[in-house]
Input
Amino acid sequence: MRVGIYPGSFDPVTLGHMDIIKRASKLVDKLIIGVLNNSAKNPLFTIEERVSMLKEVVGELSDNIEVEAFDGLTVEFANIKNAEVIIRGLRAVTDFEYELQIAQTNHKICPNIDTVFLTTSVEYAYLSSSIVREIARYNGDISALVPETIVNCVYNKYHLNSKKD
Output
């Protein structure tokens, strides 16, 4: 069974993430979405909230997708999960240099795990969780940026009403 890991903070999950998840789930027998508990970041959502939101939005996609929180090195998490591949999304050329360095380091640490880069679909190339948070913070409309079921979760974190109200 070919296992893949798609790691990230997902704070919050965006339609760009969903694009990568849908495509990656077709490349492996089991896709584990690894929600990183990154001590260097100050996330808007708790790790439990991010896992819960992801489980909700991927639940109907495919039965080969799991969501799990982790902390530490992604490559070590992948190794523990017997993954053969780490899947990373690339939005722009600027992402590539950083991601390549991480992929090469991961391969040095664990040579049996490769990294596969998927370029984000053009309609999501500009999109990031930080952009979503910034727009939502000022009560801007994020409904075209995140899955419909989590729009209000984001606004609620800022104590705002949904743009649909």
Summary: The two ends are 46 Å apart (CA to CA). The domain at 3-123 is CATH 3.40.50.620 (Rossmann fold).
